[in-house]
Amino acid sequence: MVWLAVWGLAVVLNSVPAFMPPTWAVLTDFHLYHALPIVPLAIVGVPGSTAGRALLALGSRAFGARFVPASWRANIEELVETLQGQPTLAISTLLLSTLGPLPSNQLFIAAGLARAPLAPMLLVFGVARCVSYVLWVSAANSVDRSLREAPGPRTGRWQVVVVQLARFALLFLSCASTGAMFRERGGWRRRGAPRL
């Protein structure tokens, strides 16, 4: 029953477009407070998160034009245009976004709006997430163990404030104009070709 809850939560967390906790954090909770082993957690979490991202992409394909604001659509369309022009950039972007702790929801919303083929994206996503879940849950486990063994006071108020500020900064970065970042870097033209 607990494993079904892990899978179901992974589906829900990854099918909602924004403002959900990262899946690795929920898997960490199951590891720390329910004593579930890390590798099986990753193996159960990956199909759930992949199914959730597939639902997100299909939902944005079906209903995205109605609900996604015009400014977001323009940003997403510019990102998709750039990535479609550079398949190597598309794969590396997907790998980097899925291996790191930042959300990849905008990539799947973009794929849905652009009607991009989902199977290759979901395959890369699943493999990368399996690796990242093992890494991030292991890292969180090490941090938890270190904090439990450390002498002195636990988390103070100022640390909570710093963590909240860091979360808002990450949220701001994930909502920043991707197209503007490509243009400001000067590395990509409108059609997605690299400048020589």
List the helices and strands and how they pair.
Layout: H1 2-15, H2 23-34, H3 38-67, H4 70-85, H5 87-99, H6 105-113, H7 118-149, H8 157-175, H9 178-185
Helix pairs in contact: 1-2, 1-3, 2-3, 2-7, 3-6, 3-7, 4-5, 4-6, 5-7
Shape: globular
* Distance separating the two termini: 56 Å
C-alpha-based Rg, rounded: 18 Å
Main sheet record: none
Structural class: mainly alpha
The helix/strand order is HHHHHHHHH
Total DSSP helices: 9
Strand percent estimate: under 5%
Number of domains: 1
Question: What do you see in this structure?
Answer:
This protein has nine helices and no strands. The chain has 196 residues and is mostly helical. The protein has one domain. It is globular and about 50 Å long.
List keywords for this structure.
196 residues; mainly alpha; disordered C terminus
Quick overview:
By secondary structure, the chain is mainly α. It has 9 helices and no strands. It is globular.
